[in-house]
Amino acid sequence: MKHALFLALALAAATPAAAQDLRSQVQAKLEEAAPGTRFGLVVATEDGTEIVAIDPDGRYIPASNTKMFSTAAAFATLPHVNAPDPLSGTGVRIDGRNVVLVGYGDARVSSAADCKVNCLIELADAVAAKTKRVHDVIGDDTAFPDQRWSPGMSWNNIPTRSGTGISALTLDDNEVELTVAPGEPGKPAKITLGSDYYTIENLTLTVDSGETRIGYDRLPFERVVRVTGTILKDAKPDVSRMGIDDPAHYAAWRLKTLLEARGVKVKGQVRVVHRPLLPGDDPEFRKAPFAHAREPQLLARLTPSPLAEDLKIINKISQNLHAELALRRVSRANGSGSIADGVFEVETMLRSAGVARTAWDLSDGSGMSTYNRVSPRGMTQFLRWIAAQPWGAQWRDTLPIGGVDGSLRSRFKGTPLEGRIFAKTGTINATNGLAGYMIAASGKRLTFAMYANDVPSGASATRIMDAALNLVAAAN
Q: What class is the 2-79+306-474 domain?
């Protein structure tokens, strides 16, 4: 009995020292990062005991860790997450002599020639079967207010796929493929676009020696893309995907081309109908839930696959557009479809999770906004709450697996955490984030959130972060 008591007292005395030693090892590892890098880290057991805490209540830019809030809110609030939701399907109607293409937030409509599911061609066929002469083709994305870019997103992202416009009427991920291939030495490169929606100003040059450096730019709301730089004569084609500023207009333009291919004469023009953001779209001003106008009867409507499938895509590959649309769909369920209403739903969820209001601030659903802030302690508490929800295991399955898939497929390979860490990445200017769950050497499941901010230009903190997490896993 005395021996058992002595052993218990000895273990109790040793535990703080062991924890301090682990913290010192982790801190030493973090100090290998580029000078000026600021780290925050919390690792906790399933009961919430914190094993390591470094600046736990500091506020950090989370980058794409923000998608964890959007996807969890969808699981927590939307009733049809695991079933086809026809109310979110893109539809078409005939309004007088005009054709109106209407979006309700589905992110996965396709106009690809080999499309099998959720295809715009189905809507074109429905119109062509009804009439062979129309006036205007109108894109209607009024299901959400017109907030194509979130507060705090860098303007230079607008021409890229990372900053494509957000719209309730979405087609082909609101992207257009740009391919640059070598021409003859001394002459411009050969440039092809995946769509005639844009025109090209070719300022490139094919060279015998040097390096391939291709860039492109487009001013907001312009449809001329300036492609610059050099490409080696034997180089492989350089492929980029450009963002679209007015997705509703692009979708209507694409429908027009499909109608004309089916013998439908379009006498008018391509137009759009947007809904401006009003004070009543903000939960601080709204006295009652947003009342949606009665929607006219549709001629045809697509039925998208269950949203849960898309939530997995969002977290696995860090898809920005789809994350933003998920937040707006959460918002529209009880509000206006605005960013503010979506954040309000996230706040309600975080309040249920017991996360302090000072532990987060959000301005978007994807993490492109540099206004976003989270604390490692708040995120860890949130993740533990998710694990206890009926949908928690399904949500965890949306996360990338270290060394296996998604945005973690190249990380943790050959380490003890390969296949044993399930976490969402986050990368934006001067920022790296990683948060989720990992299985320690003992088999215990640990919850963690780790952020590196103010990373100097040209440096990356991911290698240091991965090594620090391996230290913690090995010691537990």
A: alpha beta
Domain segments of the chain: what residues?
2-79+306-474, 86-301
In eight-state DSSP terms, residue 445 is: E
CA distances for 328 relative to 73, 104, 284, 322, 324, angstroms: 11, 10, 17, 10, 6
Do residues 230 and 74 make contact, with C-beta atoms less than 8 angstroms apart?
A: no
The dihedrals phi and psi of 52, each to the nearest 5 degrees, come to -135, 135
Sheet holding 238-243, edge to edge: 190-193, 175-181, 238-243
Task: Say how far apart CA 278 and CA 460 lie, in whole Å.
Answer: 41
Contact in structure between 396 and 388 (CB atoms under 8 Å): no
* Residue 188, CA distances (Å) to 185, 194, 214, 228, 256 in order: 8, 19, 12, 10, 32
| Structure tokens belonging to residue 309 | 């499938």
Within its chain, how far is the Cα of 178 from the centroid? Answer: 21
Instruction: Identify residue 261 by its one-letter amino acid code.
Output: A
Q: Cα(300)–Cα(92) distance, rounded to whole angstroms?
A: 6
The letter for the amino acid at 90 is: T
pTM of the predicted structure, to 2 decimals? 0.93
By C-alpha distance, which of 382, 371, 322 is closest to 349? 382
CB contact burial 417-455 (16+ within 10 A = b; e otherwise): bbebbbbbbbbbebbbbbbbbbbbeeeeebbbbbbbbeb
DSSP type of residue 417: T
Beta strand residue intervals within 183-277, DSSP E: 190-193, 199-207, 213-217, 224-232, 238-243, 265-266, 270-273
Token couple for 39:
């780290």
Q: How many helices (H) and strands (E) does the chain have?
A: 10, 20
How far apart (Å, rounded) are the C-alpha atoms in residues 261 and 269?
Answer: 16
State residue 294 phi and psi, 5-degree precision. -65, 130
Reading the chain (476 residues) residue by residue, the pLDDT tens digits are: 434 333 333 334 345 777 789 999 999 999 999 999 999 999 999 999 999 999 999 999 999 999 999 999 999 999 889 999 888 999 999 999 999 999 999 999 999 999 999 999 999 999 999 999 999 999 999 999 999 999 999 999 999 999 999 999 999 999 999 999 999 999 999 999 999 999 999 999 999 999 999 999 999 999 999 999 999 999 999 999 999 999 999 999 999 999 999 999 999 999 999 999 887 666 655 543 444 445 679 999 999 999 999 999 999 999 999 999 999 999 988 788 999 999 999 999 999 999 999 999 999 999 999 999 999 999 999 999 999 999 999 999 999 999 999 999 999 999 999 999 999 999 999 999 999 999 999 999 999 999 999 999 999 999 999 999 999 999 99
